[in-house]
Amino acid sequence: MARQLQIHEDTFPIAGSFTISRGSRTEIQVMVAEITDGAYRGRGECVPYAHYGESMASVRQQIDGMAGLITGGGSRAQLNQALAPGAARNALDCALFDLEAKTAGRRAWDLAVLAPPPDLLTAYTLSLGGPEEMAKAAHEARDRRLLKLKLGGDGDPARVAAVRQAAPDARLIVDANEAWEPEMFLSFSEALAGQGVELIEQPLPSGRDQMLADCPHPVPVCADESCHVSADLDALAGRYDLVNVKLDKCGGLTEGLILVQEARRRGFGIMVGCMLGTSLAMAPAILLAGLADYVDLDGPLLLASDRDGALVYHDSHVGPPLPGLWG
What we know:
This protein is an alpha/beta fold. The protein is built from 12 helices and 14 strands.
């Protein structure tokens, strides 16, 4: 039977709200691509991201535009040639990966020639807020071993100091989402180093981060918005110590595997991260997370509800997906 492609949209409420330097929200909208061949079904979830010029409508249009390739039996390699990186390609690539695994009766990590994913410690994200608000959230999450703090520019050292006092035993990483000005970088970094922060994610805007090559890094710096695909890596040398690999940015697990391999070859550390999505979006990224120095796949922990057959989190630890969910 020929393949069929279906697309549907889902909305999931966030537990409370989620705030970063670019805004706040109380729910997420995701797009799911389903590819069936009459016997098996493969699924992939993506999260359109407005900051990258994506919307639910534009991503649906991109996925619809690949219907001929998908139903005609096109491969993941052909998809990567035909469609630009981004959320739409991620949904289709992961659906194809899932379908291949189910058709072969093998796990996706076997198809990718990877070891089975180990038990993983994921960061747990605290939304941006005032020092007191973030300290309260940190106190409530103080038993989680690795906290990721969303920062926003002015006042960030005070935010981190308040969190450190509220959760003295937690490991801390921070994400500024491009909110710092160049003149903030060195003084803020030195202050955060004094609080034991292990990593600073995307402090400066993409395209305005050249100065990172010309100044010391008191805390290692990780590229997020500045790194989408493996072709970006050459420009990041000297500016960043790590790169954050997200499937919605790079356009699927196929490119994600290439990106991790090429980043390692060039000496970058690896973070595997996510947009705010369900367990279906996290599951393919778990294959990459076994290769990473830092894992940030806490999307389902921040939602009020998740999908059936969801990933099982024990505190901030997560294992591989069950076959019924993905792969």
